[in-house]
Structures are given as C-alpha cells and as structure tokens.
Amino acid sequence: MAEYGFLGLGIMGAPMAANLLRAGHGLTVWNRTAEKCEPLVNLGAKKVATAREVVAASDITFAMLADPAAAERVALGPDGVIEGMDQGKGYVDMSTVDEATSRDISEAVVGGGGRFLEAPVSGTKKPAEDGNLIILAAGDEDLYTEAAPLLDVMGKKRMFLGEVGQASRMKLVVNMIMGGMMASFCEGLALGSKGGLRGEDILDVLASGALANSMFAIKGALIGKGEYTPAFPLKHMQKDLRLAEELGDILCQPIPAAEAASLVFTRALTEGLGDEDFSAVFKTVTD
Ligand code: NAP
C-alpha cells in the first residue's frame, strides 16, 4: 500500500492531514514546531524529525507552508525535501507561492528524479476541516492523477491547469480579488457607520442583492462582534497581494485597485495585526 507524507501543520495543513488519516491513509508528518504533530500522531500518523525523512518514507509528500521563503527552505534547505527525494517519488506543494518559487522547487524535485505538482487551495480553515477545499493543480499530470484520490479527500473540487506556474497564477488571481473585496467591504462598513448607519443594516442590504456572498456574511458578523481569531491570517493575505502585484509586473498588467488594497493590508501588518484574521483589516480602516 502507498505511503504518504505531510509537511506543515498550521491552520490549513493540520486539518488536511487529519482528513487523510481519517480516510485510512498511512501518513508520516513533520512540522517546524514539533508539538503541532501530536494531534496527528494521536490519529495514527508517524512523526519524524525532518522533512527529508518524511519524503524518504513516502511515495507522495504533500506540503502546506506559509510563504515562498518557507516553501523554499523546506524543499531546498538542509534536511529538506530534495535530500529525501528519489526516482518516481511525488512532491505536491499546496502552499500559496509565486510561480518562480514553484518552478525552482519543481526543477530541483525533477532534477532529483522526482515528480512535482503545485496545488494551492481556495477555501479557508472550515473547508479544510470539512474536506471542501478547491484544489488548483499544475505540473506533472501523472502525479495529479495518482494523487487525485487524496486530493478528493481534502477537497470538493479540483482542476488541472497545465504547466507549473499556472496554478500559482490562478490562486493569486483569486486572492487578489478576495483581498480587494475585503478591503472595500471594511471601508464600506467604516464609512457607513461613521454616517450613522447600523452595521447589521449594511450587511442586510448586501445580503439581499447581487453582492451577496458568504465571505461578507460570515466575516461581517464576526467583525460586528470584534472577533478576529485567524482562519486566514492577515499576514498571508498581505503576502498574496504582494505576490499578485509582482505577477502584475511580470505580465505588464496594471492592477491599481489591488495595489491600493495591498497598501491597506501592509499598513495593517505594520500595526501588528498580522496574526489576526485578515478581516482585522477593519481595525486599520476605522477610527
Ligand atoms: P499557518 O497557520 O501560518 O501555517 C504555516 C505553516 O508553515 C506552519 O506549519 C509553519 O510552521 C510553517 N512554516 C512557516 N515558516 C516556516 C519555515 N521558515 N520553515 C519551516 N516551516 C515554516 O498558515 P496556514 O493558514 O495554514 O496557510 C498555509 C498556506 O496556505 C499559506 O501559503 C497560505 O497563504 C495558504 N492558504 C491559507 C488559507 C487560510 O485560510 N488559512 C487558505 C488558502 C490558502 P510552524 O508551525 O513551526 O510555525
């Protein structure tokens, strides 16, 4: 029976790995902060001390890491993925990174005899817990097909988008739109409330027409209660907007609205809101 690995047990990685274990798959896990492996060990995972050992023990290894620096460090650094890579092994990086990072990792994996798939996800903590993520994949299509049963445990929808870089682009496009929406939503709430409107009424109007969406409904209710426990940490939204701006430069596509949103999130980061939910950008745009 095939053996699998999982690297990076943060807000997203932990529930994704837990779902693979609950579906009966053999899983070896590693996380930089080792204690975060314990709940997975309790579900039957084998814990090891390095990413290299995970890859050595697994036919396919999945990773869900913070950002380009973390993805590169874990893949290419000492005791990393490449050191455990061997002929035919698969590496599926589900972190949200830029296309250059993804290509660097892909080249190193393929150079080591392995196969690479980038597979960032759309969806947050709850969809990760419920196995309802949307998985955006690109790279080695045979690996995509082989990993499909596991991707289907973690997600409700998946798509194969072609060569490495295309899934990163799709993910950044989606999060650029989401970041812009959140910044605009929070500014609307701040403006309305300064103008004497009730937050609940603004949410009611939005929910009643073409602007209705679950993000406004869920985050709007939490903002109303002042609850910013991170489902999607603000520092990662700021990272994604920064990476979308870089993509805009690469493709010579102006994205001034996203740049404005990026500025708002960068301000929120400098105000110390990085580890709160990305909806905490509301605190930055309100008095
Ligand atoms: P998170 O809770 O901050 O977890 C980040 C993970 O990366 C942790 O396992 C962390 O290890 C690890 N890490 C960070 N820097 C590292 C380094 N230098 N070396 C090794 N490991 C490192 O983030 P998350 O919310 O799970 O997000 C993970 C990825 O998914 C990000 O790329 C994010 O943009 C993307 N994403 C998130 C969401 C969401 O709603 N949360 C949705 C879609 C996509 P430690 O535990 O040791 O810190």
Class per helix and strand makeup: alpha/beta
**Tally of DSSP helical segments:** 14
At the fourth CATH level, what is the homologous superfamily of the largest domain? Answer: NAD(P)-binding Rossmann-like Domain
Query: How big a fraction of the residues is strand?
Result: 5-15%
Give unreliable regions as ranges.
none
Count of individual beta strands = 9
Radius of gyration: 20 Å
Give every kind of bound small molecule, once each. Answer: NADP nicotinamide-adenine-dinucleotide phosphate
The N- to C-terminal Cα distance equals 58 Å
CATH class of the largest domain, named: Alpha Beta
Shape: globular
CATH level-3 fold name of the largest domain? Rossmann fold
Please explain how this structure is put together.
With 287 residues, the chain is of the alpha/beta class. The protein folds into 2 domains: 161 residues, NAD(P)-binding Rossmann-like Domain (Rossmann fold, 3-Layer(aba) Sandwich), CATH 3.40.50.720; 117 residues, N-(1-d-carboxylethyl)-l-norvaline Dehydrogenase, domain 2. 55% of the residues lie in helices and 14% in strands. It has 14 helices and 9 strands. Strands 1, 2, 3, 4, 5, 6, 7, 8 and 9 form a 9-stranded mixed β-sheet that branches. Strand 8, helix 8 and strand 9 form a beta-alpha-beta unit. Helix 12 runs antiparallel to helix 13. The N and C termini lie far apart (58 Å).
